[in-house]
Each structure stands twice: as structure tokens, then as C-alpha cells.
Write a sequence for this structure.
């Protein structure tokens, strides 16, 4: 029987929106909370697992393409982007979906490709300025 995808043993292999770098993601539990573990080379980032459902709901409500606007935690996120929403006090968790201090950014880089893989969203794959929108579901 095939191992379920998205586990530590069988992570999702994904590419960044410009299709320039490969990374993996899998679901795990840390301190009793479901998380997404994103591994990019030697860097490991954690995101709250509920970001997938929350982002999908927000995009459905938005109803159109939204710029990803990926940025490191230390840099401000461009208003009106997926990245800005992923750290906004107005999102359902009231702040960062990223869970590792210093590495909480890049939400707009690493979460959208998983949403696309899971059939929740459509992404553009340009060298920069990529966007996403929810697929009906």
C-alpha cells in the first residue's frame, strides 16, 4: 500500500512559484498543534496547518487573483498580498501563520505551491510578481 503523501516519510515535493527552487513540505504535530514543516535546503520553517483552510476561505471571499508578495520576516510585506494576510492581525489566527521566530515570513512563497498541489488554488509561474486564486471547492 502506498504511503500517504504529506507525511515525514513521504513529503510533498514542491517548487517555488517561479519554478526556480525545489522544497518539501509535510504535516506534523508539535506541542499538540498540527503544523506544516517546510524544508528548503538546510532551512526548516513551520507554519500553522490551519493556514491552508484559512487561506482558501480568504481567497474564495476575495474572488480574484491576489499577488503573493513573499517577503522575509524582517521585511515589510506589500499591502494586499498573500504574504501581508499571512501575518496580519486581521487573519483568523490574529497574526503570523509562521511559527519559528526569525523564519516566520515567506508565507507567500511556500504555502501557495502546496495549495496548488492539493487542488485548492491556481498559481501563476512567472519569474516574479506571481499571483494565486482559489479554485472552487
Amino acid at each position: 500500500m502506498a504511503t500517504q503523501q504529506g507525511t515525514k516519510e513521504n513529503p510533498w515535493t514542491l517548487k517555488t512559484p517561479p519554478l526556480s527552487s525545489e522544497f518539501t513540505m509535510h504535516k506534523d504535530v508539535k506541542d499538540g498543534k498540527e503544523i506544516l514543516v517546510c524544508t528548503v535546503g538546510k532551512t526548516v520553517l513551520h507554519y500553522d496547518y490551519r493556514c491552508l483552510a484559512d487561506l482558501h476561505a480568504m481567497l474564495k471571499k476575495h474572488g480574484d487573483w491576489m499577488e503573493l508578495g513573499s517577503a522575509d520576516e524582517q521585511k515589510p510585506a506589500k499591502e494586499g498580498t498573500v504574504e501581508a494576510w499571512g501575518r496580519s492581525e486581521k487573519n483568523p489566527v490574529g497574526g503570523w501563520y509562521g511559527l519559528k521566530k526569525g523564519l516566520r515570513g515567506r508565507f507567500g512563497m511556500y504555502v501557495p505551491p502546496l495549495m496548488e498541489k492539493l487542488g485548492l488554488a491556481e498559481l501563476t509561474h512567472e519569474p516574479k510578481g506571481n499571483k494565486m486564486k482559489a479554485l472552487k471547492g
Summary: The chain has a mean pLDDT of 95. Residues 12-134 form one domain. The chain is about 20% helix and 25% strand.
